[in-house]
UniProtKB/TrEMBL annotation:
Coiled coil: none annotated. Pfam families: LRR_1 (PF00560), LRR_8 (PF13855), LRRNT_2 (PF08263). Its main location: membrane. Belongs to the RLP family. Residues 1-36 form the signal peptide. The chain crosses the membrane at residues 691-711. One of its GO terms (cellular component) is plasma membrane. It is found in: Cell membrane. Residues 40-76 form the Leucine-rich repeat-containing N-terminal plant-type domain. InterPro entries: Leu-rich_rpt, Leu-rich_rpt_typical-subtyp, LRR_dom_sf, LRR_N_plant-typ, RLP_Defense_Trigger. This is Leucine-rich repeat-containing N-terminal plant-type domain-containing protein.
Amino acid sequence: MKSHSSCSNKASRFHMDLFGRALVLLLLIFISPVDSCTKQERHYLLRFLTGLSQDGGLAASWRNNTDCCAWEGIICGEDGAVTELSLASRGLQGGISSSSLSKLTRLSRLNLSFNLLSGLLPPELISTSSIVILDVSFNRLDGELQELNSSSPDRPLQVLNISSNLFTGAFPSTTWEKMSNLFAINASNNSFTGHIPSTFCISSSSFSVLDLSYNQFSGNIPPGIGKCSSLRMLRAGQNNIVGTLPNDLFNATSLEYLSFANNGLQGTINAALIIKLSNLVFLDLGWNRLSGKIPNFIGQLKRLEELHMCSNNLSGELPPSLGKCTNLVTINLRNNKLTGELAKVNFSNLPNLKKIDFGLNNFTGTIPESIYSCSNLTWLRLSSNRLHGQLTKNIENLKSITTLSLSYNNFTNITNTVHILKSLRNLTVLLIGGNFKNEAMPQDEAIDGFENILALAIEQCALSGRIPNWFSKLRNLQVLVLRNNLLNGPIPTWINSLKLLSYVDISNNRLIGEIPVALMEMPMLKSDKVADNSDPRTFPLPVYAGACLCFQYHTATSLPKMLNLGNNKFTGGIPKEIGELKALLSLNLSFNNLNREIPQSINKLKNLMVLDLSHNHLTGTIPPALDNLHFLSKFNVSYNDLEGPVPIGGQFSTFPSSSFAGNPKLCSPMLLHRCYSAEAALSSPNSTKEYINKVVFVIAFCVFFVVGVLYDQMVLPRCFLLNQLR
Ligand SMILES: *[C@@H]1O[C@H](CO)[C@@H](O)[C@H](O)[C@H]1NC(C)=O
Ligand SMILES: *[C@@H]1O[C@H](CO)[C@@H](O)[C@H](O)[C@H]1NC(C)=O
Ligand SMILES: *[C@@H]1O[C@H](CO)[C@@H](O)[C@H](O)[C@H]1NC(C)=O
Ligand SMILES: *[C@@H]1O[C@H](CO)[C@@H](O)[C@H](O)[C@H]1NC(C)=O
Ligand SMILES: *[C@@H]1O[C@H](CO)[C@@H](O)[C@H](O)[C@H]1NC(C)=O
Ligand SMILES: *[C@@H]1O[C@H](CO)[C@@H](O)[C@H](O)[C@H]1NC(C)=O
Ligand SMILES: *[C@@H]1O[C@H](CO)[C@@H](O)[C@H](O)[C@H]1NC(C)=O
Ligand SMILES: *[C@@H]1O[C@H](CO)[C@@H](O)[C@H](O)[C@H]1NC(C)=O
Ligand SMILES: *[C@@H]1O[C@H](CO)[C@@H](O)[C@H](O)[C@H]1NC(C)=O
Ligand SMILES: *[C@@H]1O[C@H](CO)[C@@H](O)[C@H](O)[C@H]1NC(C)=O
Ligand SMILES: *[C@@H]1O[C@H](CO)[C@@H](O)[C@H](O)[C@H]1NC(C)=O
Ligand SMILES: *[C@@H]1O[C@H](CO)[C@@H](O)[C@H](O)[C@H]1NC(C)=O
């Protein structure tokens, strides 16, 4: 009843509104003007206004005065004709009426960006004989853009920004043939399909900027763009464009910014042609299927500042001439099949370098000393290659370095490495796992420094020794990964002094003793709040990132809070204080020698999504209250000595019977061992609807987490896999 009446209220208000506007319109048209704005112009402006369902308060101003030159958002020329409409960010909703603004014969600038306008873009707006600059970006306009009649006379349009709307269909082509003043088109972030057009420069010699990125363009790059002798910026990344880079493209020699990132381009990079683009400052061909070598001619691109070629099939060695691109700031060649020594390039002539990513290739040899002369370097990622050797003192010259990843190579002498790196005061992320095979964890109590380190990963090294005491000085540590080593001894009791630690993976070691209560006092794991932002520093987590998003920064607060103690030799019971770790999303205690009962308090871990207690010697029952852990999506208590009924409410109806295997005394309607009806009655089944809601929530959370934090669709099904830190 209530909703019905409010609905009809709204409807009647709407009618009043419409009526009011029509009245104003009539009044304004027929009261004779003593001002400069013509009747006609007012009429068309008010027609535009009436087409809106939400005018953001414009009517109040436009109604007040008969001189439309005095209206908000309107600028008139000296002779009183409306020349400019500037209505960005006004909260306008509704459609752009077709015979309104396009009829303003002197209108040259129209800016309707950042509103909520919907429906079609009236084609006359593009083809008026007056509009020079048209910006309707960031709206919800949709439908196809009509092809305009090319036999119509020259149009003055210079700038068209239709980006970030919902346009679909083929992009007009002949429309541009007669526009001799065309300067810039931004159509990015829509859903255009079909070939990218190449007719922009048939009449216009001043065409400079073309942005078609984030659409669904497909097919080859057609010839014609080479005619654009003034083209400075061409962005067509994030489409489905295939084929090779056409020779014609390299005739657009004014290009400074060229990106075809994340498409399906193939073939090799033509050495003789690339040098024609000697004005290039930014080149992004990452995430395609380009093959062959990086041509040595690249050294002739003297202005080049950013080179992104990540995730292709490039092979061969680094071209030595790269050392001549003295303006280089960023080189990203990650994830190719490059081989040979990094020392092929003399880095000492590249003083501006800030970011280098050579990860996931097949480079061999040692780290060239010349790289250490790039004193402005903040990122250096060499992970997953076949490099060897020891770090030298010269790396101390990299005073600005924040992220260093050397993981999965064959570097040696971890003691030396730690002693050298500790003095790099700005180092926040250090990833050195997969090296130093069978060495000993440095225990030297005197090791200090690393005061700003946020993430430390030394996994998969077969390191022996204890968790060293110098870790207790890493006061800013948020992420600690020591997985897959041979570490022994207990978890140190100072662990709770690492006040920011929220991601701990010490699985697959030989750690002994009881799980210390200190671990249940970790502030970041206890806090249910989304971390206090007292430390505003961003966390440069070098996750595998999509496209050349390789240099994404993320805050540590977006990391899942995790404790993984699996596959060690821990003994005793699970401390009942475990219930304090309310922020935990994932708890893994599997493959240890834990005994006694599962503490009831575990049901306080309301955020838990993964709980693995399998392969221990736990006894007693599964606490029935666990069925109120609404986000639990993975649960495993297999191979213990549990007994009694398996809860059947909440998430428990979703877990496979393998979650409970190897506990002969457990019973459930789903297991071999059925419960007596009295036992089963203990748990009350929840309604299916509630269950579905929870599942949807959990799935949504996972997708959000992975897309938002990892930017890597490859790990989509695995919400918690951060163990690929490289
Ligand atoms: C209406 O116009 C008067 C004078 O022209 C002005 O003082 C007043 O602020 C205007 N009101 C609105 C809502 O623009
Ligand atoms: C349109 O207005 C927005 C917001 O003020 C501004 O960012 C944009 O540059 C304007 N467009 C043009 C073409 O000037
Ligand atoms: C294009 O314009 C010409 C002349 O202005 C006209 O003859 C023709 O019918 C138009 N074509 C379309 C499809 O509107
Ligand atoms: C739309 O593109 C034009 C040309 O590149 C630019 O001047 C304008 O600022 C852009 N609008 C917005 C809202 O960014
Ligand atoms: C085109 O518009 C998008 C926003 O819609 C913006 O991010 C991009 O920088 C613009 N491209 C150019 C070349 O200005
Ligand atoms: C695309 O458009 C949407 C909606 O306007 C906006 O939220 C988003 O930031 C845009 N993306 C890019 C890459 O410009
Ligand atoms: C590039 O331009 C030159 C002249 O500047 C011309 O001879 C050549 O045919 C053009 N190449 C292509 C592929 O259009
Ligand atoms: C690196 O080289 C090895 C042996 O030559 C080969 O098996 C491997 O596939 C190569 N890896 C890449 C990423 O090219
Ligand atoms: C590089 O660092 C030096 C100081 O070591 C500084 O003078 C220079 O401006 C920096 N260059 C860039 C491009 O940031
Ligand atoms: C270290 O980081 C701080 C804070 O970000 C910055 O102000 C300082 O310049 C950096 N030091 C070097 C040598 O880059
Ligand atoms: C790593 O280096 C060690 C000693 O430097 C060598 O014995 C070993 O074969 C290397 N391993 C690989 C996989 O190259
Ligand atoms: C490892 O480094 C330390 C300190 O730099 C040095 O004393 C030691 O000789 C090195 N060990 C090996 C095997 O090279």
